[in-house]
Amino acid sequence: MAILEQINDLMWGFPLLVLLMGTHIYFTCRLRFPQRNLFRAIRLSLFPTEDASHAGKSKRNLSPFGALSTTLAATLGTGNIIGVSTAVALGGPGAIFWCWITGILGMATSYGECYLSVLYRQKRKDGVYTGGPMYVLKNGLHNNIAGGFYAFCTLTAAFGVGCTTQANSVTGAAVQSFGLSPHLVGIALAAVTGAVILGGIKSIGTLCERTVPAITILYLLGCLLLLVLYRHQLAAAVIWILKDAFSFAGFAGGVAGAGLQRALRYGIARGLFTNEAGIGTAAIAAAASDTEDPAIQAYVSMTAVFWDTVVMCLLTGLVIVCNMLYDPASTAGAAETDLTAAAFSHLPYVGDAFLTVSLCAFAVTTLIGWSYFGEKATEYLAGTRSIPVYKLCYILMIYLGAIIPMRLVWECTDLINGFMALPNLLALWALRRQIKS
Q1: What pLDDT does 16 receive?
Q2: Which pLDDT does position 201 carry in this prediction?
Q3: What is the C-alpha to C-alpha distance for residues 310 and 98, in angstroms, rounded to an integer?
């Protein structure tokens, strides 16, 4: 643990933070602020134009909304609930601000990733599109070694970021709320997820389209209800977040602020973990879309960052900080992963059960979405014949993730994210002139 923490502190130090935020800012400026077309992009995701998409005509590829739902399934999860809690506990309330800024600016980076992925994707003999940063590195930069490295990192992340963090978070919530056995929870998660992923990308896309919007709306309603309850603390919470975000010294409160450096480190790291802008995984799902125009799919996929970080992480963070002011005793001495639970305990009537059910639902969809990312990485490294073996290993890791210590899981997650970001950002910068707004 000590070694991992030292490596992550080095990796997520000043150079990588500058590189990541610099990339977000550069593409925001170069593409003339693509975020301005956000509402048009949301409309395109729901009602794709006929000339831009063959949605519904293919039995093997996804519709634009299906690709977006698969991305949201992979990104909406423990990062929005547990990840925000750890960001506040370790980086102070100011981490919420930097997490939110990562989402605002990260939409431009996500646009670039998805544009290149659709531009350089490949079409298999069976008509299935396959792509992602590994194919961008291979076909765009003609660097198969870098593509293989990214694919290996993606495969590792599928077992770590997409698998063990979700299983571990669900287990912790189920044990605390219902007293269930971790082994029983792990087996149940593995069985449910396995039943879906064994059906392939169409099965994954169909489930995501039907479930992700519903559970997202339900969770957002819970957050809004809590903010109504905390309405008298809301203004003070916003002021606290802003002060701590730019504080060079600790800012005292329910959880001591960590100053500018740690607020940046954990805010951006958790923002990257939850929306994955800069990592490139959204581009893998975007490449599976029937959309022919790279710009259209890039705009549609860009909205995933908005829903994930700009909306959900912000609301979760506000709920946590408001509760720190509303009921300081509930957060005093609380574990770094329990701040969200402390806030939701004040939700009338349902309390802890609402958060547990939401966490479980998001985690299952994340497990399913990330299984596809790992599948594409496996296909790149070892061909389609290796996919069944990968799926079996993935299902097994869900069970193992349910019993691994949580702190170790999150430190490994930060490490893997850092390694994935580097080759993806390299491809973005090298091929930046190919990206059109």
Answers
A1: 75
A2: 66
A3: 11
